[in-house]
Amino acid sequence: YWVKLHSLSLEGLPSPALPLLLRTYEDLLLPCLQELEPELSRHLQHLGMPLAALALPWITRAFVGYLPVEEVLLLWDRIIGLDSLLPLALLAAAVVCFRRQVLLSCQSSREVLEVMADLQRLQTVPLLQAMLFNG
User: Fold this and answer.
1) From CA 34, how far away is CA 42, in angstroms rounded?
2) C-alpha–C-alpha distance, residues 67 and 69, integer Å
3) Is residue 9 in some structural domain?
């Protein structure tokens, strides 16, 4: 799994490599942004923060160092159980949707990075479930 997080291979499902994980993240995020906060994408681009730039550090590190250890282990339970890295893209999209109001209040790309670097209080399973079952 770890090798795929740092591979530019175009390997597909069920456990895609980095390019397809980022594409999946964006595909999951777009409906959320269109329905809930259509201006967030424009705001982030205005600040020089494309959507993929938010998730790239999380995905390449599999959220290690961003989430508490217990939450990383819960995430990896899903990765191993599903035999897929797709939960990483799903969680990345869920985090952006969850933090959309805070992101809209950011005035610089540096502020966006600071806000998104601190995920210590987030709970993995509820975010994944919200993204899967609430859209």
Assistant:
1) 11
2) 6
3) no
| Residue 87: both structure tokens together | 């939960």
Q: What is the DSSP string of 8-21?
A: -----TTS--HHHH
Contacts of 11-18 with C-beta under 8 Å, sequence gap 24+, read 13/84, 13/86, 14/82, 14/83, 14/84, 14/86, 15/83, 15/84, 15/85, 15/86, 16/84, 16/85, 16/86, 18/59, 18/60
Nearest CA-CA partner of 16 in 82, 108, 111, 97? 82
> What is the tally of structural domains in the chain?
1
Count other Cβ atoms within 10 Å, centred on residue 100: 17
- The pLDDT tens digits of the residues spanning 69-124 come to 999 999 999 999 999 999 999 999 999 989 988 999 999 999 999 999 989 999 99
Q: What is the CATH number of the domain that holds 96?
A: 1.10.472.80
- 70-84 tens-digit pLDDT: 999 999 999 999 999
Amino acid at 31: P
Neighbours of 27 (CB within 10 A): 12
Place of tokens 């923060």: 49
